[in-house]
Amino acid sequence: MTIKAILTDIEGTTSSIAFVFEVLFPYAKQHLPDYVRNCAKQDPQSALLQAVRDEAQEPYADVERVIAILAQWMADDVKATSLKALQGLVWQQGYASGEIKGHVYPDAVAALQAWQQQGYQLYVYSSGSVQAQKLIFGYSIAGDLTPLFSGYFDTTSGHKREADSYTRIAQAIGLPAEQILFLSDVVEELDAARASAMHTCGLARAQGVLAGHTTVVSFAEIDPAAF
């Protein structure tokens, strides 16, 4: 079947891992505690904070305990949906103030623009929240790239190393999985996507091979028509 849609990961694929760990995570670590305190002050029944309590299975955690939970999740790189949502809100402030600019590789920008012009539907699937995804592309160093994308998916669709997540995404896109090409730098994610019948291509920007998958070092090497 001909590829009609391209689904891409962000971290390590379209964007530098260093940007996430050296810019985004430190910014969230610094600003999240005050954001949570202000959130609790403005809305004692905040659904955002209750989601943290629910996910941590600590329904009566006070505000400082919620902050401690979030700090531990960040330290352990836990893909908690409530943490990702709060990080996205904090990052939104940083992007809006100009303190943060989203990193996107120039080869990714050029390829995504070309693919959209060629008629491919473009989608994002990242463990970061949909909001965080829109921010990194909306406030990127290359300008606002959000018009390139037809949709965004995060862990509310399931975890990235589970085949069912990709099946759900294909259903949401409205195409057979066989018509979707998934791009990632993580072999377990590529394995899961392939198990759902998607085509796969691995990005290994520091060279190397993602076993069992076509592997490239740049978006410039990807020809969707070849899959």
Summarize the structure.
With 227 residues, this protein is α/β, with parallel strands linked by helices.
Provide structural commentary.
The chain is an alpha/beta fold and 227 residues long. The chain has two domains: 136 residues, Rossmann fold (3-Layer(aba) Sandwich), CATH 3.40.50; 78 residues, Transcription Termination Factor Rho, Rna-binding Domain, Chain A, Domain 1. It is built from eight helices and six strands, in the order E-H-H-H-H-H-E-H-E-H-E-H-E-E. Helix 6 links the parallel strand 2 and strand 3. The protein starts with a strand and ends in an 11-residue tail after the last strand.
Topology:
Elements: E1 5-8, H1 17-42, H2 47-56, H3 63-75, H4 81-97, H5 106-117, E2 121-125, H6 130-138, E3 151-153, H7 163-173, E4 180-184, H8 187-195, E5 199-203, E6 215-216
Parallel strand pairs: 1-2, 1-4, 2-3, 4-5, 5-6
Helix pairs in contact: 1-3, 1-4, 2-3, 2-4, 4-6, 7-8
Question: Which properties best describe this structure?
Answer:
single chain, 227 residues, alpha/beta, Rossmann fold, Transcription Termination Factor Rho, Rna-binding Domain, Chain A, Domain 1, 2 domains, 8 helices, 11% strand, globular
